[in-house]
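I am sending you the entry underneath: sequence plus C-alpha coordinates. Let me know what the C-alpha coordinate row says about the fold:
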Amino acid sequence: MALDVDLDTLFRTHGPLVYRRALQLLGRHDLAEEAVQEVFIRAMRAGDRFDPRARPSTWLYSITTNYCLNQLRDAARRRELLDARGEEVTPASVARDPRKMAALRALLADADPQQAEAAVAVFVEGMAHAEAAEVLGVSRRTVGNLCDRFLSWARARLGEGGA
Protein backbone atom coordinates (compact mmCIF):
# COMPACT_ATOMS: atom_id res chain seq x y z
CA MET A 1 0.00 0.00 0.00
CA ALA A 2 1.50 3.34 -1.05
CA LEU A 3 -0.53 4.95 1.69
CA ASP A 4 1.60 5.56 4.79
CA VAL A 5 -1.15 5.04 7.37
CA ASP A 6 -2.98 1.89 8.30
CA LEU A 7 -6.65 1.57 7.47
CA ASP A 8 -7.76 1.88 11.10
CA THR A 9 -5.98 5.23 11.50
CA LEU A 10 -7.31 6.39 8.15
CA PHE A 11 -10.84 5.46 9.21
CA ARG A 12 -10.62 7.16 12.61
CA THR A 13 -9.15 10.30 11.09
CA HIS A 14 -11.28 10.64 7.96
CA GLY A 15 -14.39 8.52 8.61
CA PRO A 16 -16.49 11.48 9.80
CA LEU A 17 -15.56 13.48 6.68
CA VAL A 18 -16.52 10.57 4.42
CA TYR A 19 -19.80 10.10 6.30
CA ARG A 20 -20.77 13.79 6.04
CA ARG A 21 -19.95 13.81 2.34
CA ALA A 22 -21.98 10.67 1.69
CA LEU A 23 -24.91 11.94 3.76
CA GLN A 24 -25.01 15.20 1.83
CA LEU A 25 -25.05 13.36 -1.47
CA LEU A 26 -27.30 10.42 -0.62
CA GLY A 27 -29.58 12.11 1.90
CA ARG A 28 -30.08 9.11 4.18
CA HIS A 29 -28.10 7.98 7.22
CA ASP A 30 -28.30 4.28 6.40
CA LEU A 31 -27.02 4.82 2.87
CA ALA A 32 -24.28 7.12 4.14
CA GLU A 33 -23.12 4.46 6.61
CA GLU A 34 -23.08 1.90 3.82
CA ALA A 35 -21.10 4.33 1.67
CA VAL A 36 -18.48 4.82 4.41
CA GLN A 37 -17.88 1.09 4.54
CA GLU A 38 -17.64 0.81 0.78
CA VAL A 39 -15.33 3.82 0.46
CA PHE A 40 -12.84 2.38 2.94
CA ILE A 41 -13.00 -1.04 1.28
CA ARG A 42 -12.22 0.66 -2.02
CA ALA A 43 -9.45 2.69 -0.41
CA MET A 44 -7.90 -0.48 0.99
CA ARG A 45 -8.05 -2.16 -2.42
CA ALA A 46 -6.68 0.88 -4.24
CA GLY A 47 -4.03 1.83 -1.69
CA ASP A 48 -1.23 1.05 -4.12
CA ARG A 49 -2.61 3.72 -6.47
CA PHE A 50 -2.54 6.47 -3.83
CA ASP A 51 -0.19 9.28 -4.82
CA PRO A 52 1.91 10.02 -1.71
CA ARG A 53 2.14 13.69 -2.76
CA ALA A 54 -1.64 14.00 -2.29
CA ARG A 55 -3.51 14.30 0.98
CA PRO A 56 -5.48 11.24 2.08
CA SER A 57 -8.54 13.43 2.65
CA THR A 58 -8.49 14.56 -0.99
CA TRP A 59 -8.18 10.97 -2.17
CA LEU A 60 -11.03 9.78 0.07
CA TYR A 61 -13.18 12.75 -0.98
CA SER A 62 -12.81 11.66 -4.59
CA ILE A 63 -13.59 8.01 -3.83
CA THR A 64 -16.64 9.07 -1.80
CA THR A 65 -17.94 11.41 -4.48
CA ASN A 66 -17.55 8.81 -7.21
CA TYR A 67 -19.18 6.07 -5.14
CA CYS A 68 -22.14 8.27 -4.19
CA LEU A 69 -22.68 9.57 -7.70
CA ASN A 70 -22.68 5.98 -8.96
CA GLN A 71 -25.29 5.12 -6.34
CA LEU A 72 -27.43 8.02 -7.51
CA ARG A 73 -27.17 6.75 -11.07
CA ASP A 74 -28.38 3.30 -10.09
CA ALA A 75 -32.01 3.16 -11.22
CA ALA A 76 -33.23 1.09 -8.28
CA ARG A 77 -31.71 3.46 -5.75
CA ARG A 78 -32.88 6.46 -7.72
CA ARG A 79 -36.49 5.46 -7.05
CA GLU A 80 -35.72 5.27 -3.31
CA LEU A 81 -33.73 8.47 -3.08
CA LEU A 82 -35.33 10.91 -5.45
CA ASP A 83 -38.88 12.02 -4.90
CA ALA A 84 -38.81 15.75 -5.65
CA ARG A 85 -38.21 17.22 -9.06
CA GLY A 86 -38.64 20.47 -10.90
CA GLU A 87 -36.99 23.00 -8.60
CA GLU A 88 -34.41 25.38 -10.01
CA VAL A 89 -30.96 24.73 -8.59
CA THR A 90 -28.85 27.73 -7.60
CA PRO A 91 -25.65 27.82 -5.56
CA ALA A 92 -27.13 29.92 -2.76
CA SER A 93 -30.23 27.82 -2.24
CA VAL A 94 -29.34 24.17 -2.64
CA ALA A 95 -27.90 23.31 0.76
CA ARG A 96 -30.68 25.08 2.72
CA ASP A 97 -33.72 23.63 0.96
CA PRO A 98 -34.39 19.88 1.18
CA ARG A 99 -36.58 19.93 -1.94
CA LYS A 100 -33.88 21.65 -3.96
CA MET A 101 -31.33 19.21 -2.57
CA ALA A 102 -33.52 16.34 -3.78
CA ALA A 103 -33.81 18.02 -7.18
CA LEU A 104 -30.03 18.34 -7.26
CA ARG A 105 -29.68 14.63 -6.48
CA ALA A 106 -32.01 13.85 -9.37
CA LEU A 107 -29.94 16.00 -11.69
CA LEU A 108 -26.65 14.52 -10.48
CA ALA A 109 -27.91 11.07 -11.36
CA ASP A 110 -27.93 12.03 -15.04
CA ALA A 111 -25.30 14.77 -15.23
CA ASP A 112 -21.88 14.68 -16.82
CA PRO A 113 -19.60 13.16 -14.14
CA GLN A 114 -17.03 15.99 -14.15
CA GLN A 115 -19.73 18.65 -14.01
CA ALA A 116 -21.47 16.73 -11.21
CA GLU A 117 -18.27 16.53 -9.15
CA ALA A 118 -17.64 20.26 -9.50
CA ALA A 119 -21.28 21.10 -8.75
CA VAL A 120 -21.26 19.00 -5.59
CA ALA A 121 -18.00 20.52 -4.37
CA VAL A 122 -19.17 24.10 -4.92
CA PHE A 123 -22.95 23.99 -4.41
CA VAL A 124 -23.29 21.26 -1.78
CA GLU A 125 -20.00 21.39 0.09
CA GLY A 126 -19.77 25.18 -0.21
CA MET A 127 -16.17 25.10 -1.38
CA ALA A 128 -14.60 28.10 -3.03
CA HIS A 129 -13.53 27.47 -6.61
CA ALA A 130 -9.87 27.40 -5.57
CA GLU A 131 -10.52 24.77 -2.91
CA ALA A 132 -12.65 22.68 -5.26
CA ALA A 133 -9.93 22.94 -7.90
CA GLU A 134 -7.38 21.52 -5.47
CA VAL A 135 -9.64 18.66 -4.42
CA LEU A 136 -10.67 17.80 -7.98
CA GLY A 137 -7.20 18.23 -9.44
CA VAL A 138 -8.18 20.84 -12.02
CA SER A 139 -7.73 24.59 -12.41
CA ARG A 140 -9.96 27.13 -10.69
CA ARG A 141 -11.17 28.30 -14.09
CA THR A 142 -12.11 24.73 -15.01
CA VAL A 143 -14.19 24.45 -11.83
CA GLY A 144 -16.04 27.63 -12.78
CA ASN A 145 -16.64 26.39 -16.31
CA LEU A 146 -17.85 22.99 -15.10
CA CYS A 147 -20.24 24.63 -12.62
CA ASP A 148 -21.55 27.04 -15.27
CA ARG A 149 -22.15 24.17 -17.70
CA PHE A 150 -23.87 22.14 -14.98
CA LEU A 151 -26.18 25.05 -14.11
CA SER A 152 -27.01 25.71 -17.78
CA TRP A 153 -27.72 22.03 -18.34
CA ALA A 154 -29.77 21.79 -15.13
CA ARG A 155 -31.87 24.85 -15.94
CA ALA A 156 -32.53 23.54 -19.45
CA ARG A 157 -33.38 20.12 -18.07
CA LEU A 158 -35.76 21.55 -15.48
CA GLY A 159 -37.28 23.80 -18.12
CA GLU A 160 -38.17 20.71 -20.15
CA GLY A 161 -40.56 19.73 -17.39
CA GLY A 162 -38.60 17.00 -15.66
CA ALA A 163 -35.26 16.18 -14.19
The helical segments are 7-26, 29-45, 56-73, 75-81, 98-110, 113-124, 129-136, 140-159.
